[in-house]
């Protein structure tokens, strides 16, 4: 079965058809850069452009960087505020004229990593963190994936992602060592309450894991995501119709 996966991120939309049996992209991904201010209607148009690019007429899985309940978007920390309260599933389905399932982006990434990537065949408690514009998070256990919002754990009255996301490292102009230590502190505080057996770090920055993994000093084993930045597309496709 083939499903078009679309990953909506803080700076771009990315999509490609995915073979669900292997988790492989069936063609080069299509990427559209987006300014932060893009409205839900404009974003839906971009999603339709991706569908048109692949001449797509089948099911689509969309990963979105916010809390998703049913097909509704409840939060939008790094995108337009107008997404909050919007029925995203319907919006993208109308724009693309295809059936759409909407999922949290980190939950999508976790599905891909647990099925085909760094967590393959591992059934124990796994924490997946994606480090990008924000911090995405999911807990996985025996094949189950639970979307979480650990990027909004409060540090000095602000969301942790403001200090330790990959974007925060650049914005704060931190060395890998300094950022790695702060990120380690944050992850260790999550370990105190979650006690994962495995931690998977995703997002584009996971390609540079050698630069910061030595500073994390976590109890659990930490590994980079296998799909690096493509987990969102593969997982969005895998999530199609998982929740009805
Ligand atoms: C959002 C999460 C999302 C994460 C990564 C956070 O700001 O609240 O839902 O998974 O960013 O995109």
Helix content: 25-40%
> Which structural class is indicated by helix and strand composition?
alpha/beta
Beta-strand level of the residues, as a percent range?
Answer: 25-35%
- CATH superfamily of the largest domain, please? ATPase, nucleotide binding domain
Counted beta strands: 15
User: For the residues shown, what is the average pLDDT?
Assistant: 96
Order of helices and strands: EEEEHEEEHEHEEEEEHHHEHEH
Weakly predicted, low-confidence segments? none
CATH third-level topology of the largest domain: Nucleotidyltransferase, domain 5
Taken from the alpha-carbon principal axes, the silhouette is globular
* Small-molecule components bound: beta-D-glucopyranose
What would CATH call the class of the largest domain? Alpha Beta
Q: What is the terminal-to-terminal distance?
A: 17 Å
What is the CATH architecture descriptor of the largest domain? 2-Layer Sandwich
Supply the number of helical segments. 8
Total discrete domains: 2
Radius of gyration: 17 Å
Largest sheet: 6 strands, mixed
Key structural traits:
alpha/beta; Nucleotidyltransferase, domain 5; 2 domains; 6-stranded mixed β-sheet; binds beta-D-glucopyranose
Q: What's a quick, concise take on this entry?
A:
The chain is an alpha/beta fold and 244 residues long. The protein is 31% helix and 27% strand. Helix 1 crosses helix 2 and helix 3 crosses helix 8.
What secondary-structure arrangement, pairings included, does this model have?
Elements: E1 2-8, E2 12-19, E3 24-25, E4 30-33, H1 40-53, E5 60-64, E6 68-69, E7 72-73, H2 88-96, E8 100-104, H3 105-116, E9 126-131, E10 135-141, E11 144-148, E12 154-155, E13 158-159, H4 161-164, H5 166-171, H6 176-194, E14 198-202, H7 209-212, E15 221-224, H8 231-238
Parallel strand pairs: 1-5, 5-8, 9-14, 14-15
Antiparallel strand pairs: 1-2, 2-3, 2-4, 6-7, 9-10, 10-11, 12-13
Helix pairs in contact: 1-2, 3-8
Beta-D-glucopyranose is lined by residues 65-67, 75, 77-78, 104-106, 130, 132, 134-136, 149, 151, 161.
């Amino acid at each position: 079965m083939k499903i078009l996966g679309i990953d909506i991120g803080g700076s771009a939309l990315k999509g490609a058809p995915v073979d669900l049996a292997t988790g492989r992209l069936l063609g080069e991904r299509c990427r559209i850069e987006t300014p932060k201010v893009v409205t839900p209607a404009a974003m839906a148009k971009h999603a339709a452009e991706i569908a048109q690019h692949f001449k797509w007429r089948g099911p689509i899985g969309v990963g979105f960087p916010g809390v998703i309940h049913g097909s509704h978007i409840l939060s939008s920390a790094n995108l337009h505020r107008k997404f909050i309260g919007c029925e995203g599933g319907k919006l993208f389905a109308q724009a693309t004229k295809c059936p759409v399932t909407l999922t949290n982006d980190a939950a999508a990434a976790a599905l891909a990593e647990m099925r085909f990537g760094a967590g393959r065949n591992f059934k124990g408690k796994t924490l997946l963190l994606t480090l990008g514009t924000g911090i995405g998070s999911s807990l996985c256990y025996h094949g189950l994936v639970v979307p979480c919002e650990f990027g909004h754990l409060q540090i000095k009255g602000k969301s942790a992602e403001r200090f330790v996301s990959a974007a925060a490292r650049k914005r704060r102009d931190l060395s890998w060592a300094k950022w790695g230590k702060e990120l380690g502190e944050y992850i260790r505080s999550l370990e105190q309450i979650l006690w994962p057996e495995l931690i998977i770090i995703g997002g584009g920055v996971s390609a540079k894991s050698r630069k910061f993994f030595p500073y994390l000093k976590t109890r659990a084993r930490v590994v980079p995501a296998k799909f690096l930045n493509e987990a969102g597309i593969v997982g969005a496709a895998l999530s199609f119709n998982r929740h009805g």
